[in-house]
Amino acid sequence: MPRYTLRQLEYFAAVAEARSISSAATNLHVTPTAVASALTELERILGSQLVVRRKAHGITLTPTGQYLRARIAALLREADELERAAAGELAGPLVLGCYSTVAPTIVPILMKWVREHHPRMDLSVVTGNQAELPQRLLSGELDLAIGYDIALPEGLESVLLYSAPPYALLPAGHRLAHRETVSVTELADEPLIMLDLPPAAQHTRMLFERAGTEPRVEQRTTDFELTRSLVARGFGYSVLIQRPAVNRSYEDLPLALCEITPAIPPAHVLMMWSREVRLNDRAAALAAFATRNAEQLDPRRRA
Length: 303
Prior knowledge:
The structure is a single chain. This protein is an alpha/beta fold. The chain is built from 12 helices and 13 strands. Helix 1 (6-18) crosses helix 2 (21-28) and helix 2 (21-28) crosses helix 3.
């Protein structure tokens, strides 16, 4: 077993950060003597000088000290997480990425759970499209991400939250608005408002290719609610995946929703993380909550 203590490592890390024993002691709310003694004992145990102490000029890290500083950050972080987990407490930062059209129906539920059950967890949310979020996961910028199972790169692990079959969104006065189902071929000659945001546009084109036809694209937008508003105003129809709980636009105009026939495989909404990064306790807890409450996250269940 190592003879050094986590407290000694913590004091060394504070000294390395502040470049001064007295400043580190102030930050740690202990005496400079306590910090200096811990540092001296750590150097004795490791058999290496970690800092060069210069009176009135602070400290300078030796090569060994620089190496140790780089290695102990993760160790101290894991030790802190272990202590909090044993006490049933989750605290610290968690960065969640979420596909922009999905975020309004999922993120508030997740944030409410964090606020009520883990108020010391600092959850921040980044919205984006399907092309950028997985890459940000793989680069380590995000702890978790929520998006569709379309065009995903290698290297991701995931859990299923819910399935989302595509549907046709029509103006309330459209000739097909009274129908429960509509085929892609029936819509092919109608003006399409294309949500040109990955993977929505890719998915829409795939639907028409499978039906052996092409859409007549009238407008392209990159905003989900603008797409719905244009449809409500009668500029055309749209094919979407995400379903708000109400079939009305931002302007409170009515919209009609028709299932697409023949039925095709739905898109799946996933919570994802990088295979190369161990989930911290906060990310693991949020993923577990989302999986247990997947039905609550599905807007079709709440409509």
